[in-house]
Amino acid sequence: MNEKKLTMKEMICYGIGDITANLYLKFIALFTIVFFTDVLGISATVAGLIFMGSRVFDGLNDIAIGYISDKSAKYKKWILRGSIATAIAFVIMFTNFHFPKEGQIVFALSAYCFWTLMYTCYAIPFNAFASTMTHDTNERTLLNSIRFAIVAVPTLICSIATPYLKSGMESGNSYGMVAAVFAVIATICTLICVAGVVERAKAPEAKEKTKLGEYVKVVFGNKQLLILSGAFFCRTLSSYIYDGSMSYFFTYYLHSSELMGMILGISAPISAVAALAVAPVAKKTGKKALLIGCGLLFAGSSVVRFLFPTNYAVVAITCWLGMFAQSATLPIFFTMVADTTDYGKWKTGKNVRAINYGFYTFCQKLGMAFSGTIVGALLDVVGYVANQEQTAATLQGIKTIYCLLPAAICLLMSILGVFWKLNEKTMKQIVTELNEREGTVNA
């Protein structure tokens, strides 16, 4: 395809747009279960079930919105309107209206489902947009490296917010106020993104349009997409169990929310460095080897933290190593999924992008869903009681949930990565054949 090289301005603006998604997702990963249990007074198991139900609902929305947005391919309109709606829903979700106990459960489930629906209208078109910006796999890697270096900013913002959230825990008002500030920041980032990127996708012509049944065949016939989605499910499950149990570990096991805030704050530049390192390292090792290595690094650092849980230096260093590994996997995964889209088009002749991302993120949302259920259920199993001193057995359970469980799941991610087949050489051949089919070979 005779397309212009991406400019640095476009890459940066696109990355700024992803601050929106990650600001919401990081806040939700760290504080949703805690907000439900310690502010709304919902039991940990019920909170986990709410998390799971809303995320399954969210995952189904991904596929539906992917199908609908593919029909128009007007991704920028979806991104802008979806972002504004998401901001409003986010503030509502973290506001404590002091309903009776049963009312708090209904509110939590309804508000979370509403937010996930609004968020999907933004996130699926945003992710699909990246695959239209360039077809060069190395350029995609650079785009995603810059993108995920920029989205280290939400981790820094969350680190600043952590002590304030804890200080206002009793009334819960601090959550709503912080959510409002986050929503304003996120919306501004979306506006910068929409103004700075070029929309290259065109709505499919009538003869090119794909029926719903054909979409299903295209998705499930793409084995590389299925393998990648399974690995991303594991990555998400591991990451969200880790994030979801982090506040409990630092609050009850170490009695130091300040240490958690400091670790998150320093994690932000570490995440940026990790994301930027992906492009040059992947050129030498390949994305597959780098992904597997990151999984092993995260798992190993988590095991060391389990063995030395009260050594603040060890805890901090292993958290930062884990954050480095986690952050590096994101640009790798999002480059890989763009490659699977081209692979699917090469194999079937069907140009479906948002629906591929919809299925891919559906598996991500399943990981998020199960993470909340697992954390909530296991907290009840180990005897957790909100806002009280925990027993020795409970503390041991919290440590296990935070350290060993994410490590085991991340190892499974690395195992699935072994089956990835779309290396750089293969992708170059696929893109060349696609160009020849369309009669627009690069000059």
What attributes does this structure have?
443 residues; mainly alpha; Growth Hormone, Chain: A; 82% helix; 0% strand; globular
Q: How would you describe what is shown here?
A:
With 443 residues, this protein is mainly alpha-helical. The chain has one domain (10-200, 211-433): Growth Hormone, Chain: A, CATH 1.20.1250. 82% of the residues lie in helices and 0% in strands. It contains 15 helices and no strands. The protein has helices at 8-39, 44-72, 75-93, 101-133, 137-150, 153-167, 173-196, 212-220, 223-253, 257-285, 287-307, 312-348, 354-381, 392-417, 424-438. Helix 1 (8-39) runs antiparallel to helix 4. The longest helix has 37 residues, at 312-348.
Give a concise summary:
The protein is mainly alpha-helical. The protein is built from 15 helices and no strands.
> How far apart are the first and last residues' alpha carbons, in Å?
9 Å
Separate helix tally: 15
Please summarize the sheet with the most strands. none
CATH homologous superfamily label: MFS general substrate transporter like domains
- How much of the residues is beta strand, in percent? under 5%
Q: Structural class, from secondary structure content?
A: mainly alpha
CATH T-level fold name: Growth Hormone, Chain: A
CATH class (first level) name? Mainly Alpha
Q: Let me know the number of strands.
A: 0
Query: What is the element string, with H for helices and E for strands?
Result: HHHHHHHHHHHHHHH
What general outline do the C-alpha atoms trace? globular
Give the domain tally.
1
Compute the gyration radius: what is it?
21 Å
Helix content: over 70%
> Which runs of at least 5 residues are low in confidence (pLDDT < 50)?
203-207
Overall pLDDT confidence: 83
